[in-house]
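User: Assemble these into one structure.

Assistant: Restating your components, then the assembled model:
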Amino acid sequence: MTARPAIERIDAYPTRSIGGFSVRAGRPLPFGATPVPGGVNFSVYSNNATAMTLVLYRAGEPEPMAELPFPDSYVIGGVYSMTVFDLDAEGIEYGYRAYGPFDPERGHRFDPSVVLADPYARLMSDASTGPRRSRVALDDFDWEDDSPLRLPHEDLVIYELHARGFTKSPTSGVSAPGTYAGLIEKIPYLRELGVNCVELLPIFEFDENDNPRSHPVTGEPLSNYWGYNTVAYFAPKASYASTGRYGMQADEFKNLVKQLHKAGIEVILDVVFNHTAEGNEHGPTISFKGLDNATYYMLTPDGHYYNFSGTGNTLNCNNPVVRGFVLDCLRYWASEYHIDGFRFDLAAILGRGPDGSPLWNPPLLESLAYDPVLRDCKLIAEAWDAAGLYQVGSFPNYCRWSEWNGRYRDTVRRFVKGDTGVAGDLATRMVGSPDMYGRRGTSATINFVLCHDGFTLNDLVSYNEKHNYANGEDNRDGDNNNQSWNCGHEGPTGDPEIIALRGRQMRNILMILLASQGVPMILAGDEVGRTQQGNNNAYCHDSPLTWFDWDLVERNADQLRFVQKAIRFRQAHPVLRRGPASAVSWHGVRQWTADWSEGCRVLAGMFDAGADDCVYVAANAHWEGHSLELPTPPAGTAWHLFADTSAPSPLDAHEPGAEPPLQNQSRVEVGPRSVVVLVAHRVQVDQRDNGKEE
Amino acid sequence: MRLSTEVRGDVTVIALEGSLDSRTAPQAQQEIEALFPEEGLVLLDLSGTTYMSSAGLRVLLLIYRRAQNGRARLALTGVPEEVHDIMAATGFLDFFTVAGSVEDGVKALTV
């Protein structure tokens, strides 16, 4: 049975001709370019423009094939809309000329000599095949029964990865390296690793060539690899699609989401609404600047750009028009791409008013928190900005927003490298930071020690200082406060003791992360010890320096296996994910007696949710081993050994559920700079008779 | 875009020649549907296609959906390498039985 044919629409016919094309008054909603029966509906808005022209190109050609001014009767409010018939939706590109005052002091920068990209463009052409222009997307992808997964937030193990860098290296062995399709081929790896959520660095269309610097040694131009400079907020990055040159990046990205969902893996997008790729008054006019500069950007009273983002401009997020734009955009990704959540870059800016002052109840953040389309989406804030607004623990949250917990990162780094005076703070961080998120449960904190921005895990334990010379700024760029320790030698070494210590330190960090309440996030590659040679700000390198080196999977198979087991262990123990913090008791060298004194480097926590879910985590950041008195496990159970980072592989982590019993039930030895994790399992009666209890 | 049809045993083989893009897609879809039997086995032979765009792939998927809703079974053969790669990357390929030759396609459908 085929579907019954619909009655033909009476608006499927043109009413007049403009610029040689048959047209009729368009539909203002939805904004953007939408295929409709017989043609394409174009809709664009600007409250301050005085006139607008639609510019059509044959794909890839330098000159327009037609310019169609919008007649007055095609304008409703500030919205210009027109349906153009007999257009080959796949074969055209388009843009707009917006007319209005050029009066920078009043914030207006209209310039009809520039053909502007559509802010609502759902597709952008691949810049490697011609000019980067707006295109029309076919939106009838066959999702079958796919929907966002709605995994409980606190059960996530997030894996932060770069959609290109993950498979760009020839070592990846995929058929289309550096693409969405290539990433699909690595889904089995992600499943084996055990993560259930990938957080993708920006995949909205951006300008990868936006970098004025060149490599100080090779002289090659540096790039903008990370992609925190959005050009088009509704368009998936064309060059990340193996089918980008055919304009099929939307289908390819949707297929990636669908396949990840089939594997039980959620997709979170890193979105950049704090600034755009247009820079300040010296930057290019691409879209917003020419459409309605005074609306889209935060401007000083005399028309200059506020720069809270550190990149030249600041998107005027709490202007009502921009707020609508952001909401439209996120709704689109949630509904059209089945995205499971969003991580907001420099999100503190999203809480600033049009004059830059922080708002106590930012309308944008409130709208996103209560929006029905976004209801099940995870909303994660990077709760600071580049102008000193630091809101970790105080970000306006509506019991809905979670935060990258920068304090968790700093505390774990300091404890593991052996700083004193942080054991107490570590205890607080390991139970979901209740001092910051007490009333909101463990999903409010995204616990991480490493992310794309900073050292990799391997480099955190291999370098005391950043080594950013290759970034072309004489090592001035990048954070100086890394809380890193090189274990006795700066950079690569052949010293087996240092190598062993670094391996242990990496496992210590990963084990603490995966045994902490809150949502852990792992930086892709850290599970196999990926290095960036000490570069802690590698945003500008699209090269083997930043790409995932798949040879490491074999070379560091032991560490990978450790992480796989630690993730499975976490998933087997709800008490590590959901809390409550009150289920955790603290211990030290003596049971029930945690040592909170300044000089202490030992901390042990018993996460006790009863006989079936009780875990003991002991972390020793001292260079000497310690013997710890064990608290009694729940009645009817005995302690079993899950992990000991001082043990040689494969004894450093046992199979979750099949951990061997601990011989001595009253004490455990925790080696120098090591973490030991025990789990309570029920014991058979005969075993208990022969055991060492009592 | 040119279509031809041939019956091999129980299988109707429909061969496409030329370019399948948004200009030719609507007509191609109509013509394929006209040639498509109400029930039975259909093999689409794409070995003569020179270009297939996003809209062309959608025609294939529409035909597949039509077959699925009716009592027909559909397979593809002669998929040019480039088209195959696009179909694989975008997930279209997952919907189809793909055979290396008309003979294999006939066999795959009649087993």
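Chain A is about 20% helix and 20% strand.
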